[in-house]
Amino acid sequence: MARRVSGRSHGDLRTADTRAKVRDNYRPSRDEILRYIAENPDRSGKRDIAKAFALRGEDRIWLKDILRDLQDEGLLTKERNRLARVGALPHVAVLDIFGRDADGVLLAHPTEAVGNGEPPVIAIRVSRGGGGPTPGIGDRVLAKTFPTDDATGPAYTGRVMKIFEKRTDAVLGVFRVLQDGTFRIEPVERRQPELVVDKEFQNGAKNGDLVEVEPARASRYGLPRAKVLAVLGSLTSEKAVSMIAIHAHDIPHIFPADVIAEAEAVKPATLADREDWRDLPLVTIDPADAKDHDDAVFATPDTDEKNPGGVVVTVAIADVAAYIRYGTALDREALKRGNSVYFPDRVVPMLPERISNDLCSLREGQDRPALAVRMTFAADGRKLRHSFHRIMMKSAAKLAYPQAQAAIDGVRDDKTGPILDTVLKPLWDAYAVVKRGRDTRQPLELDLPERKILLKEDGTVDRVVVPERLDAHKLIEEFMIQANVAAAETLEAKRQALVYRIHDAPSLAKQESLREFLQTLGLSLARGAQMRPNQFNGILDRVRGADHEGLVNEVVLRTQMQAEYSPSNIGHFGLNLKRYAHFTSPIRRYADLIVHRGLIAALGFGAGGLTQDEAERLEEVSALISATERRAMAAERDTVDRLIAAYLAERVDERFDARISGVTKSGLFVQLPQYGADGFIPVSSLDGDYYIYDETARSLFGERTGKGYQLADRVEVRLIEVAPMAGAMRFEMLTDPKPLPGSKRSFHKTKGRARASQSRPGSRGRRR
Questions:
Q1: Considering the entire predicted model, what is its pTM?
Q2: Fewer CB within 10 Å of terminal CB in the chain, N or C?
Q3: What pLDDT score does 367 carry?
Q4: Mean pLDDT (whole number) for 419-433
Q5: Given the DSSP bridges, would you call strands 707-710 and 699-702 parallel, antiparallel or unpaired?
Q6: Is the dihedral of CA 591, 767, 720, 656 positive or negative?
Q7: Backbone angles phi, psi at 292, to 5 degrees
Q8: What whole-number distance in Å separates Cα of residue 61 and Cα of residue 694?
């Protein structure tokens, strides 16, 4: 009978059986290691495993090799600084409760997909004493998950940490006037029933308007009734499109009355317990249309003769912690939102306007509280030292990126002219120094174009542009990165709990996939040691100017992991930094507010510091704000897709230049570079051959000819069908297939693994 090694939250979990085997140079089997990792997701780092099995000396080297083999075989994956079974749930996950089993136990699925196949079922454990949250069917919860041994029942059990608030205030729908003159609400979401609106509750809505309605209590007979709360506009307007995304992703967008009241009652911060820096000419440099300004910068040459050519850079960040105290209504709402969400026409802010656009916005010429970090750099870009300060400041100028850049380039105006020599030129000189440190560090350099949608006055799309990336942007970006690093370093040195911004290295499976892909292009990639960002940069340099430059950039991008928040540090792979925390945007990110509170507590800066209760909840908070960040990204992406689809709906049958942005066995995803929009070409619509999917080469190639299409190919397509509200477009391929290197070899390799499915054409807007 196999011995079970089970983990506990603290201490050594070796049994007497284990200790006896240790004396005989016992080494656990692969199955025992895998079982331990599955049963102890919160204690699955290499050191934890070695400690659990009492491995020392050479046995630890043996364990490292075994764990690497298990990763190479696809049985384990590395998540943060822990190992996990491939396809396993995260230890802390967001779950949706969908029903009960025969014994009445609540059952849930993970909100986000985990691996391939059917989502796992989680049995929800409810505290018998009633001490914890009590969820019900339909609730979305944050829970700690634990694998089970039951082969016939749920794969996991879950202990609920938090129940997310249900949205009960409004339903989104389309106002319809029927032939008999009655009014109906056609819901945007299919799970909602149709609603009847009485004339007195029409509130000015017209046929085809997108409206918010408040459902009334359902009657015993007929459809439920509702009243119109607000008319959001026609279905083709941008405002309606972003509102669909807000509702579809459950993004809180209306501040409760108690939150607004609390914000309005806040008094401006005073100079008490602060350093007076109001004479220092800090300036804000932001997008021209920015409404809040949470960071300001200043730089001077270092006057210390021991640091020739060095500079001193000051970054000041709005002191949001002065106004948002832990446990208040403002704080609870900010945590629920997690971050601000940015749409082309609107911002759904994390904090009410009284805070974000007034008291915490570093307005020109007005006193504002801030946390500042003063950093000294050597001439080669190395940071020598830094110090944090709680200050009162007064911004000397509010500048836009193009305005500041134009002044440096010789075109000054009434605002930039007087500060060109005293403020702007020293900033650019300091950036030149700090950039040397960045070049030495060699972070991952994927400079991908960022498109911006410009709207007409009626809220519809005018055009899509790629804003020029200026040195002004890079200057602010690098100064903010250095300030974030300084915050993490200070909190670590003070042994203060914090939330890190972490970015894991690509998994071994992704590295191997990249290696196989590069081989199809005649490029090699060393196997074995963990990759570093400069190795990716080396790959990108080798293909610069080549026909497949875009393809390689795309594949390298897809090899990367997703950044997230965690109280456990594994560093930031993309930035090539050992420690990193978000500090510079507390108006729009809750993670930064936590870091501010940590600095206040660690450095004795007075009121508003991180509490012990808050520090103990950082794992839960990290999972929450990582989830809200992904939610915001999805909502923003969906809105752009719908906007562009609506914009192109009148251009069916037109030809477009496109680039293949995704390859699957079902067909090709194509992107229109001019618009940044995605559409789909079903494999069944590709004429002249039977197409086979080659996963390694990211291509579809003809079984008979060997010709086909590959990721990042430039092609010409015709728009066939548009579904604006779904953000979906279907295209027809007009470009002939091309010979693909190694396609015959790829055919034999792939033949038994995955063939293109000859399904009927369908409309799919983008990858999910």
A1: 0.77
A2: N
A3: 97
A4: 98
A5: antiparallel
A6: positive
A7: -125, 150
A8: 38
